[in-house]
Write a structure and sequence with these properties.
434 Repressor (Amino-terminal Domain); Endonuclease, Chain A; 13 helices; 11% strand; DNA binding; Cro/C1-type_HTH; DUF5753; Helix-turn-helix domain-containing protein; Lambda_DNA-bd_dom_sf
Length: 285
């Protein structure tokens, strides 16, 4: 696969274009489903980019929408072909959050809040191994190793010299105090956070326990933004059996405002760096 083709992003862009064509035609997803003798849920999955789109699907939908411009049809057909290619993460087999990885791989910036653990992009290998083992007690050793490898591969976006991911992470103090692995693992992890906090395109902030209740008590989430204006921002909320992706402008706006409140209530970058270093010293005692 060409390095500049991200199948997840291709599916999203294609889905957005198909939705636009449907709305221009004044049709509902239910009406389209009835015309094509398929389920309404299939049309919805095609439009939100959660399902691979075949060239036949595109041809049939363009027929329903009466798209007469051959260039538009050919362009959509090519996008469908690209969307069925595989990203780097597919070489690791079945990854539950592969849709998210595809989005993260193409994102220009990521804002993440985590109340319980260090975000995956900032984890050391020992921390990641201990965390995944604890979270998935029945997982086989090979599956745990695969997940760790994927997590470390994702971190290459941070060190990419040509196209680094702009990362802003707000952590609750609980994520620093929770002993994952053992004290030595935590010392190395916290020292790594301090080191990463000096990276120009990485910003870390901590919300201490003394802050009390704050807008992030409802749980972890991430906001992804993309370099292409045609790609809408996405709010990602991780679940146990399924994940939630919010793309409606109103939903993204609400989470963005909540994130701004988190930033405002957290310690600033310098204070957070000192706070993390102090917690590391506590582990060393």
């Amino acid at each position: 696969m060409a390095s500049n083709v991200n199948p997840t992003v291709r599916r999203r862009r294609l889905g957005q274009e198909l939705r636009r064509l449907r709305e221009l035609k004044g049709m509902t997803a239910e009406e389209v489903a009835e015309r094509l003798l398929v389920s309404q849920s299939k049309i919805s999955r095609l439009e939100n980019g959660r399902r691979s789109i075949s060239q036949r699907d595109v041809r049939d939908l363009c027929g329903v929408y009466e798209v007469e411009d051959v260039r538009i049809v050919d362009s959509l057909m090519q996008m469908a072909k690209d969307s069925r290619q595989q990203g780097w993460w597919h070489s690791f087999g079945d990854i539950p959050y592969s849709v998210y990885i595809g989005l993260e791989t193409d994102a220009a910036s990521l804002r993440v809040y985590d109340p319980l653990v260090v975000p995956g992009l900032l984890q050391t290998r020992p921390y990641a191994e201990a965390l995944i083992q604890g979270a998935l007690p029945e997982a086989a050793a090979g599956d745990i190793d695969k997940r760790v490898q994927v997590r470390l591969r994702r971190q290459e976006r941070i060190s990419d010299l040509e196209n680094p991911l702009r990362l802003w992470a707000v952590l609750d103090e609980a994520a620093l105090r929770r002993t994952v692995g053992n004290k030595q693992v935590m010392i190395e992890q916290l020292e790594h956070l301090v080191e990463m906090s000096h990276v120009p395109h990485v910003t870390l902030q901590v919300i201490p326990f003394t802050m009390g209740a704050h807008p992030g008590v409802s749980g972890q989430y991430a906001i992804l933004e993309f370099p292409d204006a045609a790609d809408s921002s996405v709010v990602y909320i991780e679940g146990v059996t399924s994940d939630l992706y919010l793309e409606k402008a109103n939903d993204v706006q609400k989470y963005s405002v909540m994130y701004e409140h988190l930033r405002a209530q957290a310690l600033n970058a310098d204070q957070s760096r000192e706070f993390i270093a102090d917690v590391a010293k506590d582990y060393a005692r």
